[in-house]
Specification:
Layout: E1 4-7, E2 12-13, E3 17-19, E4 24-26, E5 31-32, E6 35-37, E7 40-43, E8 48-49, E9 53-55, E10 57-60, E11 65-66, E12 70-72, E13 76-78, E14 83-84, E15 88-90, E16 94-96, E17 101-102, E18 106-108, E19 112-114, H1 120-133, H2 137-144, E20 153-155, E21 160-161, E22 165-167, E23 171-175, E24 178-180, E25 182-184, E26 188-191, E27 194-196, E28 199-200, E29 203-207, E30 210-211, E31 215-216, E32 219-223, E33 227-228, E34 232-234, E35 236-240, E36 244-245, E37 249-251, E38 255-258
Parallel strand pairs: 1-23, 3-6, 4-7, 4-20, 5-8, 5-21, 6-9, 7-10, 8-11, 9-12, 10-13, 11-14, 12-15, 13-16, 14-17, 15-18, 16-19, 22-25, 23-26, 24-27, 25-28, 26-29, 27-30, 28-31, 29-32, 30-33, 31-34, 32-35, 33-36, 34-37, 35-38
Antiparallel strand pairs: 2-3, 21-22
Length: about 280
């Protein structure tokens, strides 16, 4: 589920907030220097959010740090040793752990339970075990399907997102969104998006997008009218004829310009879905 950083369609990076229509899952030990506006928001343990959180449901695992307010239109789960610099407002039920610090106080409209909640990974593990014991294999299969997270903003563990960068050791997928900051990942796929920053990775696929910065990688694919407002530096560069590059193209092993480019197959080690 968190094997790549995914920025789903219609996500906007604004000055203070990341705004998305779907769920948000921030992996453990990650740092996001924005506020987050989404549907269900999960922040895994030891992660920090630089601004406020607004969601329909909110879950903060132990030892998270939130730099602003936390507002949940439904239920909220707050783990032990969480630090909230603003106010906590919950319109549903609140389950809260011990040793939680809330600088500006809290308000909960529903039932308040004080106990140390399980972190999300352990919660899912126990939930799956219960389903297996009950013989409900189909529900387990449905739970683990990637389609359940197609519209979710996913940030793997040990990643960083701020005004200057989007940085992870995993693959990155950006779809129909507008992002700020230099993009750094393993393999990077950008589709129907605007990226205000440079892009660096191993295999880079830019499809129907505009990049306002340099692009550097081992293999770079530019297709479907994409624009790069900077230079491209790679071992191999593949460009469709209706694409444009504002500055120099530096490629050790050559540049291929064709009507249609064959893309690497999708999978753990590649991006794209065959020929387009």
């Amino acid at each position: 589920m968190l094997n790549k950083l995914v920025i789903p369609a219609n996500t906007k990076f604004e000055e203070k907030n990341i705004i998305t229509n779907g769920d948000v899952i921030i992996g453990p030990n990650s740092k996001v220097d924005y506020g987050i506006v989404g549907r269900r928001i999960i922040v895994c343990e030891r992660s920090s959010i630089g601004g406020s959180i607004f969601g329909e449901e909110v879950r903060l695992d132990p030892m998270c740090s939130i730099g602003g307010d936390v507002v949940s239109e439904g239920d909220a789960v707050i783990g032990e040793f969480v630090n909230i610099e603003g106010k906590l407002t919950v319109y549903g039920d609140l389950e809260i752990g011990r040793n939680v610090r809330i600088k500006k106080g809290f308000e909960a409209r529903g039932l308040i339970t004080i106990q140390d909640p399980l972190n999300i990974i352990m919660f899912i593990f126990i939930y799956i075990l219960i389903l297996l014991r009950l013989g409900r294999l189909e529900e387990v299969s449905n739970l683990l399907e990637d389609e359940n997270f197609e519209s979710s903003l996913l940030v793997p563990g040990h990643s960083q997102i701020d005004l200057e960068k989007i940085d992870t050791s995993k693959n990155i997928e950006i779809v129909a969104s507008r992002t700020l900051g230099n993009v750094r990942g393993r393999d990077v796929q950008i589709k129907d998006s605007q990226v205000y920053g440079s892009v660096r990775g191993s295999i880079i696929l830019i499809e129907g997008s505009k990049v306002y910065g340099a692009v550097e990688g081992k293999k770079v694919y530019l297709v479907k009218g994409s624009e790069v407002h900077g230079h491209i530096k790679a071992n191999e560069v593949f460009i469709e004829e209706n694409c444009s590059v504002e500055e120099n193209i530096i490629a050790k092993h050559g540049v291929w310009i064709k009507d249609k480019i064959e893309l690497p197959l999708g999978g753990d080690n590649g991006v794209g879905q065959g020929e387009i």
